[in-house]
Specification:
With 275 residues, the chain is of the alpha/beta class. The chain contains eight helices and eleven strands. It has a six-stranded parallel beta sheet with strand order 8-7-6-9-10-11, with helices on both faces.
């Protein structure tokens, strides 16, 4: 269960103290919007604001504020300033402003809207070993996965809430309906399908130019063969330059499905940071 979903479910039964990074200056462990939540008499938070003494001190204060809330005592100022220096045993040197607020079931709709991470659409073509490994790696990351295959019965029985599984035959027929700004990963069970998917993506790029990343699994030799075949279909070298093959961050040579999945996920994170 996603951390936010867990928080929203649990505050139906009991209040929590929500600690949010309101703003930052200089070098800090987490960005504005990062959050954690504490429940009464629990030592472990949901979420994190960066760990270390900053988080430990914030956890202690959150428990105190929650106790005040339950006892009906006056509330303290909502936002506090923390300098990440010697007093906290941290040498980041920046400043963090933390917002403390006690939240209940009545706050759930607003919290869902406010705390939901920005999800980047990813279209994954292929339900093989690497596809399954990649779906697992992407699940806790800020990606909304659209998983597509021409074969039935290839998807797991249970997937992450942000994953949409689609059977499409022919598989490339799914390309025109992909969400705008989708990062596309192509790793079907056959090279013929891969070629058709790449071609469909390039045709969409001609019309809309709304696919910021088109990644194809395989070797440089595979891409050389694909390039010749795609040029024969009328695609220019400039259009072919929009395809990344091989995929994955450079320097990771392992071919195990899980290793490839981590390398590809890292490449996606690099790409969405640049968008």
């Amino acid at each position: 269960m996603a951390v936010l979903d867990c928080l929203l479910q649990r505050i139906e039964a009991a209040p929590a103290c929500l600690v949010t990074v309101e703003s930052t200056q200089g070098s800090v462990p987490r960005e504005s919007g990062a959050w954690m939540a504490l429940f009464a008499a629990e030592q472990e938070p949901l979420g994190t604001i960066g760990g270390g003494h900053l988080e430990l001190q914030a956890m202690q204060e959150a428990q105190e504020r929650l106790a005040d809330h339950l006892a009906g005592r006056p509330e303290r100022p909502a936002v506090v300033r923390r300098a990440l220096g010697p007093s906290l045993g941290q040498c980041c040197g920046g400043v963090v402003h933390l917002r403390f607020e006690c939240v209940t079931a009545a706050d759930a709709p607003a919290l869902r809207k406010r705390l939901a991470p920005r999800m980047h659409p990813v279209a994954l073509f292929g339900g093989g070993h690497v596809g399954h490994a990649l779906a697992r790696v992407l699940a806790p990351l800020p990606f909304a996965l659209h998983w597509i295959d021409s074969r039935e019965g290839v998807f797991p029985s249970r997937v992450d809430a942000d994953t949409l599984c689609e059977h499409s035959d022919p598989v490339q027929a799914a390309v025109p309906t992909l969400a705008p700004q989708s990062c596309v990963l192509i790793m079907s069970f056959s090279h013929a399908e891969d070629l058709d998917i790449v071609a469909a993506c390039l045709l969409r790029q001609r019309e809309r130019r709304d696919l910021p990343f088109i990644g194809l699994i395989g070797s440089r030799t595979k891409w050389a063969t694909f390039s010749h075949r795609l040029q024969a279909r009328g695609f220019s070298e400039l259009e072919l330059a929009q395809v990344t093959c091989p995929i994955g961050v450079p320097g990771i040579t392992g071919k195990e499905p899980e290793v490839i999945a981590v390398a590809v996920a890292a490449q996606l994170l690099q790409r969405v940071e640049a968008i």
